[in-house]
Design goal:
The protein is of the alpha+beta class and 340 residues long. The chain has 13 helices and 11 strands. The protein has a 5-stranded antiparallel beta sheet with strand order 9-5-7-6-11, covered by helices on one side.
Length: 340
């Protein structure tokens, strides 16, 4: 039989603290729903201990808004289907990339897959891109994910809320509980004991997935690009020299390399803000010679900004830093040599 909590092992205070650390959201607003009609609504008010307590004992469901500015501590894929196999496929594919993901039986017919990150949060845009990439890989691109936005702003003050697990009224029915992601689909007998074992993922893993699959990520995120963005499929993909610079880093001419990478990322259709993120990941790979410092994030933002202001088309083959990564078999290099 499932136990909500072993009172001797975990106090109410520790329960609330653990619960709020994992299912972290905005503190001034939350959501709930009617257990009879299923109707959802928003409540503007502080998320206090009583709100969590009422949720855990089954008095009133609690839903939280996971998007805080442009950060989030969780990512959720909502599989609205009786069949658990798609959710399990997502978990297995996430594990392939080193991401820990956990399966919850939702309050209705479907399943939620949860990915947890630090309480400080990670870039919601990065997480959403990676989750969409994984969903595309398992051929379920239309699966709903949370957060639904990259950030909140004046037009979207809160984002969307997701119902939290462990609603006391449904736990005895085997709903809103974490379950084994295998053929048994058995709920963990002590939910709190299980929750204490949850492993948070690092933002570095998201960076690694994006860096190592940059071309595929760009392709699979074409539908998120601005409406006026046009992409020539024949030009798709990055030149080998640019790929190598991204993977290996550079030892000199960092700003030139940064600018040329940004030009090429723009050329294949990457949004400006995402290019900044990619290059912020790249900068730490650089090993400047002659006691030079590593390019700063501010400098990267400036270089990317300049690259996106005008329609630069050149790869930069004439630049020493680009030329040092050139391959003699590169068609672009051969074309440039023939034009001289």
């Amino acid at each position: 039989m499932m136990k909500m909590v072993d009172e001797k092992r975990l106090s109410d205070y520790k329960k609330n603290k653990l619960f709020l650390s994992l299912f972290k959201g905005l503190k001034n607003v939350y959501g709930t729903y009617s257990t009879k009609s299923g109707k959802h609504w928003q409540i503007k008010g502080m998320v206090i201990e009583k709100i969590i307590y009422n949720h855990l004992i089954g008095k009133q469901p609690y839903g939280f808004y996971p998007l805080i500015n442009d950060k989030t501590s969780v990512g959720i894929a909502d599989f609205d289907d009786h069949n658990p196999l798609p959710a399990i496929a997502f978990i297995k594919r996430a594990a392939h990339y080193g991401l820990n993901a956990y399966l919850e039986k939702s309050k209705s017919k479907g399943y939620h897959v949860w990915l947890f990150f630090s309480e400080e949060g990670v870039s919601a845009r990065k997480l959403r891109i990676v989750m969409k990439y994984i969903l595309d890989e398992i051929e379920l691109p239309n699966t709903e994910i949370f957060p639904k936005q990259d950030s909140i702003n004046q037009n979207n003050s809160y984002g969307n809320f997701i119902n939290a697990p462990l609603f006391g009224k449904l736990v005895p029915e085997g709903k809103t509980v974490f379950i084994h992601a295998d053929n048994s689909l058995k709920p963990y007998p002590d939910q709190w004991e299980f929750i204490e074992t949850i492993v948070r993922n690092s933002e570095d893993i998201l960076d690694s997935i994006i860096d190592n699959n940059i071309t595929d990520v760009i392709k699979k995120n074409r539908n998120t690009l601005p409406k006026n963005t046009t992409i020539n499929s024949s030009q798709y993909g990055l030149p080998l020299c640019i790929k190598n610079i991204l993977c290996q880093g550079v030892s000199f001419d960092q700003r030139v390399a940064c600018f040329r990478i940004a030009v090429n990322l723009k050329r294949v259709g990457l949004p400006e803000e995402f290019s900044v993120e990619v290059l912020n990941n790249w900068r730490v790979k650089n090993k400047p010679i002659n006691n030079k410092r590593i390019i700063t994030q501010r400098e990267i933002k400036n270089q990317v900004g300049w690259a996106y202001k005008k329609n630069y088309n050149g790869i930069g083959c004439e630049e020493p830093i680009i030329n040092s990564f050139c391959n003699s078999k590169c068609k672009l290099r051969q074309k440039n040599n023939n034009m001289r």
